[in-house]
Amino acid sequence: MRSIWNGAISFGLVNIPIKLVNATESHAISFRQIHTEDNGRIRYRKVCELDDHEVGPAEIGKAYEDADGTIIPITDEDLSHLPIPTARTIEIVAFVPADRIDPLQMGAAYYLATGGAPAAKPYILLREALKRSDKVAVAKYALRGRERLGMLRVVGEAIVMHGLLWPDEVRAPEGLAPDAKVTVRDKELDLADALMDTLGEVDLEDLHDEYREALEEVIAAKAAGEAPPEAPAPAEGGKVLDLMAALEKSVRAARESRGASGADAEVTQLRRGRTAPKEAGGKKSTAKKTAPAKKTTPARKTTSKAAGEGTKRSATAKGATGKGAAAKKAAAAKEESESRETGSRETEPAKAESGKARAGKAGAKKAEPRKAASRRRSA
After folding, report:
1. Residue 119 and residue 159: Cα distance in Å, rounded?
2. 20 to 30 A from 69, CA-CA: which of 23, 166, 311, 321?
């Protein structure tokens, strides 16, 4: 890399010879101006106004134009005698925490390379001091005819200097923030935080200039005599009416693009309606009913019979497996217990009806001997 400036770093009484090298480069595609009728190049020629003569770079110098139009020539010799210590020196004036530097002030970046073997030790001394202090150095230097402000920091094993704007060159953002009184709800902030967390971090090495790549494709197609590639149709976007809906949609889209829709998805439980009553076999309560349960009594009897039949079947199955009389006794006891429970749940009208039926059966049994005796007498 070619150096663009030679000088020294002034670190107290320590002097470090260095070379200034551009730390960045532009990959932007540049265009030439042409005459559209014949594709001829359009060039700008530097012509002297007095004699209308084109002049070359060697004949061009610097001058200051006064308010009244007077031209005051300034030569390189004049500039070399400027009464400032930073003409060929990067003078460190302070060491401050990095967060004291406003990013708005930062400009071009330069690598500082050692200017010979004797500069190695003081260079490493300054580098290690910056590392251990976790600070940056603020310095002044002169470049391209003006004194500038710079910031020195360590990148890898090298020292980098960032050109800084002077504080009075940074404009204040007055009148740019919205004047409307807007209240941001906590739920909106939570969604914004979720979107930030979903997008997460990115490796800057993975980012690239897609515009430049597309432009290179267009140039290659034109050079080959082919039609340039078609631009994709722009996505249809509507006016955002609901900020919450827009945030929720953004979070879902970000999760899908990151492939984390399944892992990070949040499930919202919907409110369910009243559940249906349990089927027969469950404990269904009828205690709240006050009217005589005409319809419920047969249902209970049917249920009791079904339960009894099911119990008998289970008892028979158990007997078939070899458990014998013990299983039958257990089944009979269970049947009797369930019958008692069923009887205790019957309503009063049902009990009365059941009592009448039992009384009728008992009367019928008592009447049978009398009828038999009457038939013998008649015989």
Report:
1. 13
2. 166
DSSP state letters, 112-175: EEESSGGGHHHHHHHHHHHHHHT-EEEEEEEETTEEEEEEEEEETTEEEEEEE--GGGSPP-TT
Distance in angstroms (rounded) separating the CA atoms of residues 18 and 242: 58
Q: Per the structure block, which two tokens stand in for 374?
A: 């009457």
Nearest Cα neighbor of 312 from 298, 297, 333 is: 333
* Burial environment of residue 321 by CB neighbours within 10 A (0 to 12, 13 to 18, 19 or more): exposed
Instruction: With H, G, I as helix, E, B as strand and everything else as coil, classify residue 190.
Output: helix
Label the pairing between strands 146-155 and 136-143: antiparallel
Torsion over CA: 216, 222, 228, 229 (sign)? negative
Tokens of residue 354, six digits: 């059941």
| Block residue for tokens 């260079």 | 123
Amino acid at position 77, single letter: E
The answer to whether the beta carbons of residues 249 and 243 sit under 8 Å apart is no
Of the candidates 276, 274, 277, 293, the one whose C-alpha atom is nearest the C-alpha of residue 346 is 293
Per-residue pLDDT reduced to its tens digit, 187-232: 889 888 888 888 878 888 888 888 888 889 899 998 999 888 887 7
In sign, the C-alpha dihedral spanning 170, 172, 176, 178 is positive
Taking the CB of residue 139, how many other CB atoms lie within 10 A of it?
22
The answer to whether the Cα torsion of 193, 199, 200, 205 is positive or negative is negative
Six token digits for residue 252: 């879902």
User: Which two tokens mark 264?
Assistant: 């990070």
Give pLDDT tens digits for 311-336.
Answer: 444 444 444 444 455 555 666 666 66
Q: Which residues contact 5 (CB under 8 A, 6 or more apart)?
A: 19, 20, 143
Pairing of strands 106-114, 146-155: unpaired
| CA 257/CA 128 separation, integer angstroms | 43
